[in-house]
Design goal:
The complex is a heterodimer of chains A (113) and B (113). Chain A has 113 residues and is mostly beta strands. Helices cover 0% and strands 54% of the residues of chain A. The mean pLDDT of chain A is 93. Classes of the chains: A mainly beta (113), B mainly beta (113).
Chain lengths: 113, 113
C-alpha cells in the first residue's frame, strides 16, 4: 500500500518568514495530493491540493509543488502569520472510487510574532 | 456554510463497553468516511461508505467495528467491545460525488479506561 513520509515534524519560524514542508510517497499510481491544516480541537481542513497532471499550484500565500519522478511534493507558505500556526498534513491518494488518502505524520508549524 | 458535525465531542468509557459515535455529514454528499488519530500520530483511514454499504475498509476496521446510516442523515460508528488501544480521536468525513474534497468533522475524542 501507499506510504507517505513527512518532514519536518516540527517547524518554528518568525512571522513573515517562509515555511516549507516536504513529503514523499511510495505508490506511483497515486495522482491526487491534498494538504490539510488542523487547528487545535478541530478536524483537518483542506487548504490546497494538486493533481499529478500539474507540477505546481498556487493560492495566495500557499503553493504546492509536485515532482512525480522523484515522488516528492511540498507545501510552501510565504509571509507566515501567527494564524498559520497549526498542524499540517500531506496526503496521497488515487482518484476514482473512494478517494481514500494516506496521510503523513503531520508537521506542527509554529509562527512566532 | 455546510459542515460535518459529530457528537459527542468527548466520550469516556470502560474497557469492554460498546460505544456509538455519531456524525451528520453534509446533506448532499454521497461518500462517508471514518478515520482515527491516536494522540500524536497520523490520521488513519478506517472505513468508507457509499450507496448504503461499505465500499472500502482498512485492517484496523475489524469485527469489533460497524457503521450504519440509519436514517439518511446520521452516519454512526459502533465499537462493540472497546479496548484501551481504541482511545483516539475519531473523525467523520463526507464527500460529494466525483473529484471533490473530503470535509472533516471536528472529531470525537474517545477515552477507554
Amino acid at each position: 500500500g501507499e506510504n507517505v513520509e513527512q518532514h519536518p515534524s516540527t517547524l518554528s519560524v518568525q512571522e513573515g518568514d517562509s515555511a516549507v514542508i516536504k513529503c514523499t510517497y511510495s505508490d506511483s499510481a497515486s495522482n491526487y495530493f491534498p494538504w490539510y491544516k488542523q487547528e487545535l480541537g478541530k478536524g483537518p481542513q483542506l487548504i490546497i491540493d494538486i493533481r499529478s497532471n500539474v507540477g505546481e499550484k498556487k493560492d495566495q500565500r500557499i503553493a504546492v509543488t509536485l515532482n512525480k519522478t522523484a515522488k516528492h511534493f511540498s507545501l510552501h507558505i510565504t509571509e507566515t502569520q501567527p494564524e498559520d500556526s497549526a498542524v499540517y498534513f500531506c496526503a496521497a491518494s488515487k482518484t476514482g472510487g473512494s478517494y481514500i488518502p494516506t496521510f503523513g505524520r503531520g508537521t506542527s508549524l509554529i509562527v512566532h510574532p | 456554510e455546510p459542515e460535518v458535525t459529530q457528537t459527542p465531542s468527548h466520550q469516556v468509557t470502560q474497557m469492554g463497553q460498546e460505544v456509538i459515535l455519531r456524525c451528520v455529514p453534509i446533506s448532499n454528499h454521497l461518500y462517508f468516511y471514518w478515520y482515527r488519530q491516536i494522540l500524536g500520530q497520523k490520521v488513519e483511514f478506517l472505513v468508507s461508505f457509499y450507496n448504503n454499504e461499505i465500499s472500502e475498509k482498512s485492517e484496523i476496521f475489524d469485527d469489533q467495528f460497524s457503521v450504519e446510516r440509519p436514517d439518511g442523515s446520521n452516519f454512526t460508528l459502533k465499537i462493540r467491545s472497546t479496548k484501551l488501544e481504541d482511545s483516539a480521536m475519531y473523525f467523520c468525513a463526507s464527500r460529494a460525488g466525483g473529484p471533490s474534497e473530503q470535509f472533516f468533522g471536528p472529531g470525537t475524542r474517545l477515552t477507554v479506561l
